[in-house]
Design brief:
It is a single chain. The protein has 194 residues and is mostly helical. It is 76% helix and 0% strand. α2 runs antiparallel to α4. The longest helix is centred in the C-terminal third of the chain and has 28 residues. It is elongated and about 55 Å long. The termini are far apart. The N terminus is likely disordered.
Length: 194
């Protein structure tokens, strides 16, 4: 009974640990999507993309981005928002959701920055990456980043001024990333199929 009351009190008040959970989920989701995109579904069918590739790679990747945002990022942000509003209040829930959305969009841009493939169409060479080392490094980096973002999120929920300042910087930063991505995608690179 006492443990239940203590946990209920912790859940009902925002904390850095609770605020970091959606960031962990976003990072895991986007890394999983990136890994799945590299796995061929029907390798023999990639000739269709080779023959019909007429647009710039940026146009294809824009479709991939829209797909991931629509079916991955937005549900991660919007589905728990009513629960956050009920438990933490509407203002804190809105601030939290905005930060999660900005971080997820920036993480998506990072994940797809050096992805020169059409999802599910390329051969995959097993053993090419040393996943044991990469997993450890990614785990430490993303856990640390998630905790830092949880602390920033907690501070933003407490102060409207901090929220406006940091959210404004996040939007401007995302604008710079999108602009750099558009410039990168217009440089004339081609997709890899092997």
């Amino acid at each position: 009974y006492m443990l239940r009351r203590a946990l209920a009190g912790q859940v009902c008040t925002p904390s850095p640990a609770l605020a970091s959970i959606p960031f962990d989920l976003a990072f895991l989701l986007l890394m999983g999507v990136r890994l799945l995109f590299s796995v061929p579904v029907q390798l023999k069918a990639n000739w269709i993309f080779r023959l019909t590739e007429g647009a710039s790679p940026g146009e294809y990747l824009a479709g991939v981005r829209k797909f991931v945002i629509l079916l991955g990022v937005l549900p991660l942000v919007l589905l728990p928002a009513p629960l956050y509003a009920t438990v933490w209040g509407a203002s804190a829930a809105l601030r939290h959701s905005v930060l999660v959305l900005l971080v997820a969009l920036l993480a998506l841009e990072t994940v797809l920055w050096s992805f020169p493939k059409i999802p599910f169409t390329c051969s995959m060479l097993p053993g090419k990456a040393d996943l044991k080392v990469r997993f450890g490094v990614y785990f430490v980096l993303l856990t640390t980043l998630s905790l830092v973002l949880g602390l920033i999120d907690y501070l933003m929920m407490l102060s409207a001024g901090a929220f406006l300042c940091l959210a404004g910087m996040g939007v401007v930063g995302y604008g710079f990333v999108v602009r750099a991505r558009n410039r990168h995608e217009s440089e004339g690179w081609r997709f890899l199929f092997e």
